[in-house]
């Protein structure tokens, strides 16, 4: 039985005139710990989203010969890995915050639901199940469920996008970064 073939490599190519163009000009730190510029990050992330999900990522940076001689290649590779690792950690924090808000919202929503159900039952008893009592009862039940809309949305759907972005940043942090002269 033959082994599964290795997934195709996803290639992202950048052409720059100066290495400094890759980095945020306002970041005072040296290159290995410096943030990528927003445009460079956006370009890389958008391209990476189009690549197969299981393919390892390779980033090829085309740099003019003169600039390449001045560039710290190891520092450049470290900068990419550090930047995207930090982005993955940041998104992990966003996920934790989203779930924290979801848990709080769920507690509030369930409390509102209990109050609404009890209020609906009380209205039916006190108003002898009249038409206004049934309308009020149904309205309270609907309000109780609507109060749970946001936590349900968080726990069922909202976290997916953040989890996908975190996985993409993790893949980018593990990507191979190479340079090539123009």
**Unreliable segments (pLDDT under 50, ≥5 consecutive)?**
1-5
Give the N-terminus to C-terminus distance in angstroms: 44 Å
Structural class: mainly alpha
- Taken in chain order, the helices and strands follow as EHEHHHHE
**Which percent range fits the helix content?**
55-70%
Query: Structurally, how many domains make up the residues?
Result: 2
**Number of contiguous helices:** 5
- Largest pleated sheet: 3 strands, parallel
Content of β-strand: 5-15%
Say how many strands there are: 3
The Cα radius of gyration reads: 26 Å
Spatial strand sequence of the major β-sheet:
1-2-3
Query: What characteristic shape results from the CA principal axes?
Result: rod-shaped
Could you characterize what this model shows?
- It is a single chain.
- 17% of the residues are buried.
- Strand 1, helix 1 and strand 2 form a beta-alpha-beta unit.
- This protein is rod-shaped.
- The chain is mainly alpha-helical and 182 residues long.
Summarize the helices and strands and which ones pair or pack.
Blueprint lengths: L9 E6 L22 H12 L7 E7 L1 H6 L2 H54 L4 H16 L2 H25 L2 E6 L1
Parallel strand pairs: 1-2, 2-3
Helix pairs in contact: 3-4, 3-5
Features:
disordered N terminus; 182 residues; mainly alpha; 5 helices; three-stranded parallel β-sheet
Question: What's this entry about, in short?
Answer:
This protein is mainly alpha-helical. The protein folds into two domains: 10-91 and 168-181, no CATH class; 98-163. The chain has five helices and three strands, in the order E-H-E-H-H-H-H-E.
